[in-house]
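Hi R.,

Here's the chain you asked about this morning:
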Amino acid sequence: MAIGILKEANLLKAEIPPDAVFIGAISLDGSIEKVDGMLPAVIAAKELGFKRIFLPNDPLIPINMLEEIECTIVQNLQDVIQYLHGHPIQAMIHPQTPLPLTNIPYHKNSAEIIGHEQAKEALVIAAAGGHNVLMSGPPGCGKSLLAEAFPSILPPLTNQQQLEVLSLYQLANEKLPHSQNAPYRHRHHSASSISIIGGGTYPKPGEISLAHHGVLFLDEMAEFTKKTLDMLRQPLESGKVTISRVYSTVTYPASFILIGAMNPCPCGFLGSNTHYCTCGIKQIQSYRNRVSGPIFDRMDILLSLTSVNLDQPNSVSTSSSDMQKRVKRAIELQYERYQQPINNANVSYEKLKESSPLTEQQQKIITKLAYTHSWSNRVQIKIIRLARTISDLQGERRITDESILLAQQLRENFNSTSIK
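And here is the predicted structure, written out as tokens:
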């Protein structure tokens, strides 16, 4: 506004570049101060096609990571006028110090988890394709442990992904060390729907947006309110959430992997080898119905776990770094296939069919399975997406028959067949 006023008052003789944008607040003495949400504004300007940005110094903006855009640091309004007239300004002589990367250790390593090898392999599939996972098992069987180790097998964030995550945390007024680690969010089931989805009088990002490009873990998923869980339906499908309030309507990105964990029944011991279940059939059904059908349909992988014996023979468990290497290779195949950074879980079904068509025999297999298990169309498509990811992990260019059968096993016998 100030630059426009100066131009209209004929106090600014130079032409204002059409690809330039000015961000900041002007004090009474003419100095330019930073404002809240600077990084999101810079990213939005870049996406709108601006090539040059004038802004005050802000140590929270990693200017060294911003590509294809020129950032000019100014201290006051006179600096802007001076630069537009073609004269150098003092602020440009001292470039901003790059925002240092912080090496944050992961909570858990998969090598520390005893047993659950088949469950770990299922989580590798989930990480490689961006698939959602729902785990069920008695208390203490390792559900939370597996979820905490899951971020350690995800690949490091790219520059663009880091910028998007940092901007969301700034909008939410939350501190986040500058790191390449994928974000991991874990909220108690007493959390409100606003804190999970986002909102407020002046809408701010919620947990699903703070988990963007990372993981949202909902422990005791059946204890969350039905309203909160059902509000996840749209973000899980579209990868974004739109919040409408009286003062504004905003859309935040929310592309995350959902890891859910729940007990198989109210007492928690259905199928346990050490305790008797005291729940009736109606109690069990009522408990499971807390996770509605539409949400259940949106979970790609369903795992039933049981407790493992700690005195089992010592064996070398696969480390997170080895699992991460496999995930990286599978993701690279997907990026190459789709010619954009998108995974099997989120690519459009049309592009998935075009790049990985099923054979006539494979389509018959899926149709027969769908009839046997009463699968919806969404679940059938998820089976194809899972099979595509499994084939990528195997280095196969086409979807194999074996991958379809394995994808089926990752969904059937939930809460009745246990994976150790």
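One quick note: The CA atoms of residues 185 and 335 lie 26 Å apart.

Cheers,
M.
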